[in-house]
Amino acid sequence: MTRPILEAKGLHVAFNGVKAADDVSIAIHDGEFLAIIGPNGSGKTTLLNICTGYIRPRSGRVLLDGHDITRLSPRAIARRGVARAFQIPQLFSAQRVIDNMMLGLAATDGLWSAVRRLETAARRDEAMALLDLVGLAGDADRISSTLPEGHRKLLDIALALALKPRLLLLDEPTSGVSALERFPLMEALMSALRQRRITALFVEHDMDVVARYASRVLVWNAGNIMAEGRPDEVFSNAQVRQRVVGVA
Amino acid sequence: MRTLLAAAAVLTLAVLPIAAPWLQFVLTLAIAKGFAALGVAVLLRAGLISIGHAMFFAASAYAVTFLARAGIHDLGLLLIFSVLAGALVGAVAGSFLVRYRAIFFAMLNLAVSMVFYALCAKLYGVTGGTDGMAVPVPTVFGLVLSEPAFKSVLFYLSLGLMVLVGVSVQRYLNSPLGHALAAVHTNEIRLEYLGVPVWAVLLIAYVVSAALAGLGGAIAGFAIGRVVPDFAFWTASGHLVLIAVLGGIGGVPGAFIGALFLELLHSAAVTVTDSWNLIVGMTLIIVIMFMPQGVYGLFARKEASNL
User: Which regions span the lipid bilayer (chain B) (predicted)?
Assistant: First the structure.
């Protein structure tokens, strides 16, 4: 196995006495597509919040390429190549879709220009390529708040990709996306991840998506890791099938 | 079309004082307040309302008198250094104020500006207290001008600066930094997750807005010939917010349109009745109720309907 790109060691987090992470350790390796599944409220999103610096664990450490990032801000972690797509899309709602993307791209190259226009031919082309990737090229000039929920989700993912990350954390990438668009979106996403050699960790409730796209699955339950392994191994685990997948 | 309309408006402003010389002072003051209101409008793009920008307006006006006392008498140098002084005060105040949002930002700006006002009013030995300080007539490129001649130079310089600074601010707002500023209003979390230091984006905007208010204050100081603590009083800050909203916060011209509209309305109202506040107030209510995009919205709509 390749070296871990991100490691969480001995994480403890509790909210009002409810444990979201109880001495949890995980590692994501270069090139992996790690899926985290588990019941609602089991602490999956909390893990993403910790790994991106949004909340700090009571104890434990998060390492990126071996460097401790536990106390860093989301901004500092993003600048180290970790991007995030949210369960509830986080967009610049009053701006056009294309402006969302161009601002995302400018964040990595040339934000500090106060005289050049945000919209350059090169930046627009790059933004359109990313929008095309997630199937939103036709919506480029729409105000992002007018997009249907599924398309807002896609734009949120495209914005995360605009950061040109090494590691992408996705919180339920297919929620809110119609059944017809779900697999085409995942195909496009996985293709982009492979092309750009992006490692990904995704929290997901759709077991068909997990079974088809994850290289490894981690089952999170009540702040603990219940099971871990290849999708076929995990889904054949009777305890997982009963408590998480909902099949006896 | 928009450029033609703007050029026609500037040309009209340029010839107005020839037809009606009394308008020169009113227009100079309106442009000065327009600069300060533009500063307020810059921050409004990030959803931040400052009820304290009269502080920077006053700071630069006072800076002019201090610099003149220190031996600087050239108009250009006085303007440059006084605007830098306003920007410096903005950098100091902004370094902690940009951490706050919504009502806390508005109230803290007001509080800081009132401390500044109190200092200006109480430090008699330094600022002249409530009597204020006289602003001397400066030289222009080494030329000593009579006061009426200087006031004409000041008006046309202000008009020229209005165009130059307006274009520069529009360019800033269209830049990645300007878009990031607007994005603070819509989604600060996403900006942070894109690796953008929101505090730095806001601090730059705050310094720019303070410099704009300072430029307005310096021009107003020259036009009036005196600087008093009331320049920094909270009602003056409220007046700037009013101008920004009245003109329309959608674009750079809005601040100047709002300032010209309010100053001309005020000048007309005082000739009709002692209760001029009533006329001004009623007009403001009408504008706010029926023109949600401000006076500038009238022009924006007209252009859209021509498409």
Answer: 42-68, 75-97, 103-124, 153-173, 193-224, 231-256, 276-299
